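tool_call predict_complex ligand=1-O-phosphono-alpha-D-glucopyranose
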Amino acid sequence: MVKKAILPAAGLGTRFLPATKASPKEMLPIVDKPMIQYAVEEAISCGIEDFIVITGKNKRAIEDHFDSAYELEEKLRSSGKKKLLDEINKLSHANFAYIRQRVAMGLGHAILCAKPFVRDEPFAVILSDDIIDPDYHLLKEMIRVYNEVDCPVIALEEVPKTEVFKYGIIDGAKEGDIFKIRNLVEKPKPEEAPSNLAIIGRYILTPDLFRILEKQKAGAGGEIQLTDALKELLKKRTIYGYLIKGRRYDAGDKLGFLKATIDLGLKNPEVSEGLRDYIKEVSARIKSADAGRKR
Ligand code: G1P
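tool_result ok
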């Protein structure tokens, strides 16, 4: 049973400066919810209720967000705003623990920080800047695969060859709808990538990984990489990759963030109609500007 999730949230978010100068990247809203809440809701829909958030400096807003807000709740209650009250309370049954990663030593190191809270159980790792379409239940499918194979499972997506340098890339043998992983490389150059199958930010992992992370040396970018630790784990046990079948947005990137905002806005009943009309208007404007340029 996977009951815990680690949410690494210690990164500096430099790609979103100046927005992330004093507030966490994970709190940037997509439509009306901070990015990290999408990750939490995704996990809750799989029965996960314990969250270990790995934070760093300037991340206090994350703790406040998942805490109760007495004055606000009272105000909403007394003014009869029940829908909003339910909305801000809907995650109140989940448990959150926060650990500060004192030094920015990479994703592998961030996960190692959660060891005392995870102990001897399998766990999910969710990178909240990879937003998965909330109507597509990727994590649920990965947990189903994990329960069948009893081995770590990591999410994969095919990416253009020119973008492999942004990801962990695997080499693997296809077995039905999963891949038996043969090798993993963190952020390879295009000519050195073993494939175009990229690791995306959803993992179901097993606690034996911690023993490896404890000894893991710095890799790409001088950081302790999760991908390198998984490569080490591969010497001891099978690891599977699960090719995603729905939409993923790299919301850690400005363009990906805007795409997520548009698609999730189109799903939001409050704004979908107005947004649809606006997109049509913008697209007509772009078409006419393009036609003008060609003339
Ligand atoms: C991390 C991992 C990388 C993975 C990526 C997915 O990289 O190290 O293997 O492909 O997440 O989003 P980051 O994006 O933190 O540089």
